[in-house]
TrEMBL record:
Transmembrane stretches, start-end: 6-27, 34-51, 57-76
Protein name: LiaF transmembrane domain-containing protein
Source organism of this protein record: Pedobacter miscanthi
Annotated keywords: Membrane, Transmembrane, Transmembrane helix
Annotated Pfam families: LiaF-TM
Annotated LiaF transmembrane domain residues: 7-69
InterPro entries: LiaF_TM (IPR054331)
Coiled-coil features, chain-numbered ranges: none
Cell inner membrane is among the record's keywords: no
UniProt keyword Membrane present: yes
Length: 331
């Protein structure tokens, strides 16, 4: 067996084993604890390249030994409860003190915040867009992008959108473009230096949305977590494209049809749908773990609730992931 195939096999077994142990409640594994050690995989890849070229049996043993030791350390480190829950863990941060307002991304109005004397580098930023009644008949599209961010949805606002940010790094902006058919909001973070920073240097964002608008939410999250309770909002579409991320959303039944599309790499995805709505799930999940409580399996990759055909409110869920954990439940 080639060394590179053996190494990837061990890594996949490690990830699958951890996800399985989590699913059965044997362990609590905090993935964000291990991301700062990602350079170890560069070292393993380098050893693999060197020893594969020389066909050295001793070298192969060394590579496998280094990999096993590294994964053992990561397994131990991942079970340590983190001091902060900024992103991805079994426990989302429920009491994030975050807030966003509109100043066109200008950081000159930021206020210092020592975050309970832990870190004086945090700043508060608020971004907002006013609600215009004349535009409410149009689609309201919210584009969200960023990395290393913990997103929350915390109540309604009389504005169209409020965003409260507790930031340590990066520049944030909220822009609005109005066309004949839609109001497009774009919330984004520009932070090239911190693009691959997965440590405790993240940012917290707390959204408030107007309940009168009908929302299409399109989210692209490189690394981080999103915890959104959409049940009191009219959400027509929610699309999520994430890498190493945690997603926890609750969908309501205020519209006849709601579409939820999730594409992820290595993610922990939890979706809650109301009992009164009929729901269909289509999956393309590779090696991902799946738990669809209250659904009947119709065929490979297709699941439905028993009231799907008779319900006047329908939710369509599409899941596409490589090494992710997908859970869909009813409330």
């Amino acid at each position: 067996m080639k060394l590179d195939r053996l190494i990837w096999g061990i890594i996949l077994l490690f990830i699958g084993g951890v996800l399985l142990l989590e699913n059965f409640g044997v362990i609590d594994f905090y993935w964000r604890n291990v991301w700062s050690f990602w350079p170890v995989f560069l070292i393993i890849a380098g050893l693999n390249i060197l020893f594969n070229r020389n066909n050295s049996q001793t070298g192969s043993i060394i590579s496998i030994g280094v990999l096993v030791v590294a994964l053992s350390f990561l397994f131990y480190r991942g079970q340590q409860v983190p001091e902060h829950s900024y992103w991805w863990g079994n426990h989302f941060k429920k009491d994030i003190d975050v807030n966003i307002d509109h100043n066109d991304g200008d950081d000159d109005h930021d206020n210092d915040d020592d975050d309970n004397n832990r870190d004086s580098s945090y700043h508060q930023l608020k971004l907002t867009e006013p609600f215009v009644a004349a535009d409410n008949a149009k689609r309201t599209i919210l584009n969200i992008s960023g990395g290393g961010i913990s997103f929350n949805l915390d109540g309604e606002t009389s504005s169209l959108i409020d965003a409260d940010i507790k930031k340590r790094r990066g520049n944030f902006s909220l822009k609005k473009v109005v066309s004949d058919s839609a109001t497009v909001l774009t919330f984004s973070m520009d932070d090239k230096k911190g693009k691959w920073n997965f440590g405790d240097n993240g940012n917290d964002v707390n959204f408030k949305l107007n309940k009168e608008a009908t929302w299409d939410v399109l989210m692209k999250l490189g690394a981080g977590e999103a915890n959104f309770d959409f049940s009191p909002y009219k959400v027509r579409t929610f699309r999520f494209d994430g890498g190493a991320a945690a997603l926890d959303i609750k969908i309501g039944d205020l519209l006849p049809i709601t579409d939820v599309v999730v594409k992820s790499g290595v993610a922990d995805v939890k979706i809650k749908v109301p009992n009164g709505a009929g729901c269909r799930i289509k999956t393309k999940t590779g090696l991902s773990a799946k738990d669809f409580d209250g659904f009947e399996k119709l065929s490979d990759g297709v699941y439905e609730t028993s009231n799907y055909k008779t319900s006047t409110k329908k939710i369509f869920i599409s899941l596409d992931g490589g090494l992710s954990n997908f859970e869909v439940s009813r409330y």
